[in-house]
Amino acid sequence: MKVLISDSISATALSVLRSSRIDFTYKPEISSENLVREIAEYDALIVRSRTKVTREVILPATKLRIIGRAGVGLDNIDLKATAERKVKVVNTPYALTNAVAEFTIGLMIALARQIPKAVSSMRSGKWEKSSITGSELKGKTYGTIGIGRIGARVSELAHAFGMKIMANDVIPIPKDLIDRLGISVASRDQILSEADFVDIHVPLTPETENMIGYREFSLMKKSAFIINTSRGKVINESDLLKALSEKKVAGAALDVFEVEPPNRLELLKSEKVIPTPHIAGQTEEAQNEAGRMVAEQVVEYLKSA
Ligand code: 3PG
Fold first, then answer.
1. pTM above 0.85?
2. Catalytic site residue 153?
3. Type and span of the H or E element at 301
4. Which of these is catalytic: 278, 289, 292, 296?
5. How far, in Å, CA of 11 to CA of 13, rounded?
6. Is a pLDDT exceeding 80 seen at residue 294?
7. Which phi and psi angles does 256 have, rounded to 5°?
8. Counting beta carbons within 10 angstroms of the beta carbon of residue 106, is it exposed (0 to 12), middle (13 to 18) or buried (19 or more)?
9. Backbone angles phi, psi at 290, to 5 degrees
10. Strand segments (E) across the chain
11. How much is the pLDDT for 59?
12. Please, which pLDDT band fits residue 164 given cuts at 50, 70 and 90?
């Protein structure tokens, strides 16, 4: 049995495979052309989000029985094509929760206190003490669109900072969570118009693609920030640029982009945007856990039949 690992993965995953005596090939930078060419040799494929497991990849994959996604989002895998070919798909939904939540809080503080601006100003030899005055999280309203595992963890942390919590989800929000954090359950538009920090924690689906565009930015307070660590395509980037230039919103922190690596230089260079290279879930702890969990699931499945 052979496993192909086509994205960078933690050493923990490799040692799980080694100790289970599973033969694997580690090609974290394989091109999509080579993936299509080579996939027929493998019984299992382990990916993160870089590898696009399209129908074109699945078609020649005649031996493939399982795809392991070390992480959460499955939008890079054609789930219709895998279902048709009876290829099982597994992921590690719990592994990255805390990493993404802590990173989100980090971005909120970076936006509110203008930390990136202060750092680059110091690096250019300036001492802008009088012009960089931030605001505090305490007493502000945090609004999350999507309150699953990650949205709930950010809400807990935001609550600890003394923020008021508003949340919206397509599925009912557990009552104990609402009571514990004093959450105001609200519509998406209410969150957009009332929150000081609008945060997004939804998967990329046909319903969420382009969910936040010019109309939505126009509802936001001029002083509000938007944070996206979910998927880039949830936000319409050109509408965000327009909203920022028209001062409809104060700023944005983006860890994810419509295209990765991103190609909209204007967005990356804007003083009002904090861009990061899709690293919210990238801590040693989270990646070790994701790697271990995905490798164990793949091994168990391959050995079960
Ligand atoms: C996820 O969906 O797991 C996160 O967005 C992280 O993606 P990555 O594994 O490609 O960094």
1. yes
2. no
3. helix 284-304
4. 278
5. 5
6. yes
7. -135, 155
8. middle
9. -65, -45
10. 2-5, 23-26, 44-47, 66-69, 88-90, 141-145, 164-168, 184-185, 197-200, 225-228, 251-254, 273-275
11. 98
12. very high
Residue 88, Cβ density class (10 Å: 0-12 exposed, 13-18 middle, ≥19 buried): middle
292 bridge partner residues: none
CA quadruple 216, 218, 224, 228: dihedral positive or negative? positive
Q: How far apart are CA 184 and CA 84, in angstroms?
A: 42
Where residue 200 falls among pLDDT bands split at 50, 70, 90?
very high
Catalytic residue list contains 65: no
Per-residue pLDDT at 39: 98
Instruction: Output b/e per residue, 10-20; b: 16+ Cβ within 10 A.
Output: bebbbebbeeb
Kindly report, residue by residue over 98-135, the tens digit of the pLDDT: 999 999 999 999 999 999 999 999 999 999 999 999 99
- Which atom of ligand 1 is nearest to 96's Cα? 3
Cα 140 to averaged position of ligand 1 atoms, centre (Å): 29
Band (pLDDT 50/70/90 cuts) for residue 12 is very high
Tokens 């126009």 belong to which residue?
218
Cβ partners under 8 Å of residue 131, min gap 6: none
Residue nearest to atom 10 of ligand 1 (CA): 49
H helices present in the chain, as ranges:
11-19, 32-38, 55-58, 79-84, 97-113, 115-123, 149-160, 175-181, 188-194, 214-219, 237-245, 265-269, 284-304
The finding on whether 68 has its CB within 6 A of some atom of ligand 1 is: no
Tokens of 57: 């990849």
pLDDT at 305 exceeding the cut of 80: no
Extract the tokens encoding 299.
């091994």
In residues, how long is the chain? 305
